[in-house]
Structure formats: C-alpha cells, structure tokens
Amino acid sequence: MKITYVIAFLAILLVPAACSDSKEDQLQGTWVLDIDSFKETSEYKDANEISKKGMLNVLESMDMEITFSGNKVISKMKLMGDSKEKSSDFEVTESDGDKLTLKTTVDGKEKLAVATINGDKLLFESEGKKFTMKRK
Fold this sequence. Notes:
- By secondary structure, this protein is an alpha+beta fold.
- Helices cover 32% and strands 49% of the residues.
- It is built from five helices and eight strands, in the order ααβαααβββββββ.
C-alpha cells in the first residue's frame, strides 16, 4: 500500500515537469546553420551543378548561429572575414502547434519571424528567407 502512495506522489511531482517542455522552452539554446537540410531544399536540388557548388562554398565558409536565452536572442554571423553580431529582446506573440511567431526589435526596427521546432531542427522564416538550423 505504501508503494502505491509513493508512486502516486512521484507521479504528481514528475508529470508536470515532463509536460512543461513547451515550444518556447524548446527554443532556448544555440542553433547553427544546417547545411545538410539545405541540400534537401528545392532551391538546391533544382539548381545546376555550378550553382550548387557555389551555394555550398558560401554556406561552408559561413559561420552562423542564433542563441535564445530567456527573452534575449543573439545572432552571430561570420562570412569571408566579416563578423556581425546582433542582440535584442524577443517575445513569442503567437504559438500554433510547432510554430512560434517571434517579435524582435533590431536597429530600431520591429521584425517578425516564424520558428517551427521539430526536435533538434528549427525552420526559421524571416523577411522572405527560410533556413534550417540544428541544435548546437
């Protein structure tokens, strides 16, 4: 009988913790550009061989990461010796299943982005551009 009470008590404590992993929580951490996922896009698959090689050369020479920490987002990008880093607050303005609409203010301009989380993959859509990130 005591075992039943202990199991019930543990279930009460552990189930909410296991279920609290919201999409907003899953967004937290550092994400890097996923070149393998890019190779699966129609943009890459439909390109001729010379264009494919050029795209891969650019992507492989680029270092891009996005870090979500609390309500802060930091994006870092290095390309051909040029480094840029931007930081801003963000808020989730809408949550629909796996999709989160994020609002940030960068350089005094409000920007919206849609982040779709699928395990350790993050499809990021912003200003008409789409790219897939993977958890670092």
